[in-house]
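@channel anyone free to eyeball this complex?
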Amino acid sequence: MEKILFYCFAGILLFAATMVITVRNPVRAALFLVLAFFTSAAIWLMLEAEFLAISLVLVYVGAVLVLFLFVVMMLDIDTSTLKEGFTRYLPLGLFVAVLIVLELIAVLGAANFGLDQFPAPESSTESNTKMLGRLLYTVYVYPFEIASVILTVAIVAAIMLTLRPNKRKTQDPAEQVKVRSTDRVRLVKMASEKRQDGKDKS
Amino acid sequence: MLDIVTQHLLPNIGKILLIVSVLMVAVAYLTLAERKVIGYIQMRIGPNRVGPRGLLQPIADGLKLLLKEIIVPTRSNLYLFVLAPVLAIGPALAAWAVIPFDAGMVLADINAGLLYVLAITSMGVYGIVIAGWASNSRYAFLGAMRSAAQVVSYEIAMGFALVGVLIAAGSLNLSEIVLAQQGGIFYWYWLPLLPLFVVYFVSGVAETNRAPFDIAEGESEIVAGFHVEYSGMAFAIFFLAEYADMILISILAATLFMGGWLSPFEGVPVLEPMFAWVPGLVWLLLKTSFFLFVYLWIRATFPRYRYDQVMRLGWKVFIPVTLVWLVVISTMQVFDIGPWFNDVVEVSTS
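replying in thread with the prediction:
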């Protein structure tokens, strides 16, 4: 039963991942990326890594890819310019791809990541989240904190790069709240007048 | 194989059908309740022609929508146009799997229940975004963009509010969160987590795109926003999803901050034994109805926010408030400040 489920999800994942890079429309590619993330979360869930699986959905599917989609939908990408020079860059691209695959095999191959390299996980009744939290804040506290500081610095840097103080249009809520109707509209009392051209309006 | 089917699959499918069908009836009558409540708030009577006191109105509305033609706009993306309502209703229903209706009365009693709800509800925005894009219409697209930005912003505040609940209860399991609030009305988390409670509910209103945060629809500015091109049942499904989400946010507010199925008279001398026979489900539904009423009340009372005001409220008011209160709640938790945090602390050493 579990095997059938795994192969179903793995198949969908591979299909979605292939579609991400082959589909022409960028919006569809982004949507296939959503599917890819979702199915990989399902596979993680089958590995009983429920915290990681759910945070993958929460962070990547729920937030990052929404912003991604947001940007892709706004852009009017001309795919023909992207396809330009495809044959010219093909050899270099292939070379890099083969290199990456070889590196991955060297690092993640059965010699390092095979089933016999790791002890069988003890089935534990304790919540996944609790154990992860305990590890993150005790054993791995320094790497964890450093990573968060780097991310914060990146946020600040990104904001500083896009911030143009002279061109900003800002609203001052305090000023807006202070406004009274008499600041905007002046009601003038005046006597009614006859039309200049002398015609009677009917 | 047959064992799995008869022992696990069939009972669970039965439960799912029960939850979904009750939810659909609740959605139908919530639309009637909305029109009635807002009617009376505005000194009108509301629908009263179909059936006794207008009670058959939702059924008539549903039939009308079922029989209407679904028009597909020209040069729209047909697949995505049809997929969008499905993506809207799917998460709105899936989130109900972990809601505890009473002690032990829950479809899937999973440990990461709170995270699951947050993750699944965050998927709902895809329905709106895809609907806006696939319709090939400027108004729909504007609505989708507004909605995407708004939902992503308020999700952060909402997530932080839920982290507060998690710190207070020490668990992500929704049933355990309810049990951690035992001891009467002043032990429920609305009191120690008051700022988070307010932020959660207002963010919930914003997440479901309801007034006064309904800028994604904004009928006075962008016609009807993301679903302007939808008609008939396709439109009705967006409608169903929105109302199912409203009920979900209300039942979550009741579960996380108002003690779920617990009786409000716990610890009160005379009233507790008097109301001991009332099942927990009734209390939960009463609390949920209260929040739904607040939803409608807000809609009848406040004008729609301007877009920049929505963003300001989310980023500059709610997120700082939740961050400060997280520090406060953690301090209370670590130093065992009563009466709420005397006994729930369990920092185990490994």
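from a first look: The two ends of chain B are 40 Å apart (CA to CA).
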